[in-house]
Amino acid sequence: MMVIDFTKPGTIVLHTKPFYAAYHKKHHEFTAPVGVAAVYCTPMEMALSNVLPLMAGTSFAGTFIPLHGDDVGPAMMGSHVTTSTAWFCVALINTVQTHSGYDFPFMACPKAHDFHHETFSENFGCFFFMTRFIFADNSRWS
């Protein structure tokens, strides 16, 4: 999951003036929590915010989980198909849950992401140190 945090600069770039209107505004048409908003986006945003983190996660997992065989799919860079499938399922459930507004124990922070959809410029990520502290993107969130 930490790998996702290192791909969040792509999401932050999508919130800058040159890129927001062209690539990310469609996603922010949803200001109220609804799960389908997780994947409601332009193709460029899909690549930067959704596909890149998924591929990075399977790449990272493949580096540290030595699995052998010929069943590695394209662009998985060493991850076993079962590892990749599990990663995709967890990531999809997480992103839909984050956009759903439902607060389940031990899962992502939908209230923080709802705040992001209201303000557009804060709370880009929910999990780890990079988007929370290095980018200081949550100054108004309490």
Automatic annotation (TrEMBL):
What coarse category fits the chief subcellular location reported for this protein? membrane
Q: Which domain of life is it from?
A: Eukaryota
Task: State the Gene Ontology terms under molecular function.
Answer: iron ion binding; oxidoreductase activity
Localization, per the record, is: Membrane
Q: List residues of the Fatty acid hydroxylase domain.
A: 13-130
Q: Which UniProt keywords apply?
A: Membrane, Transmembrane, Transmembrane helix
GO biological process entries: lipid biosynthetic process
What is any one of the record's Gene Ontology cellular component terms? membrane
What name does this protein carry? Fatty acid hydroxylase domain-containing protein
Name the source organism: Aphanomyces astaci
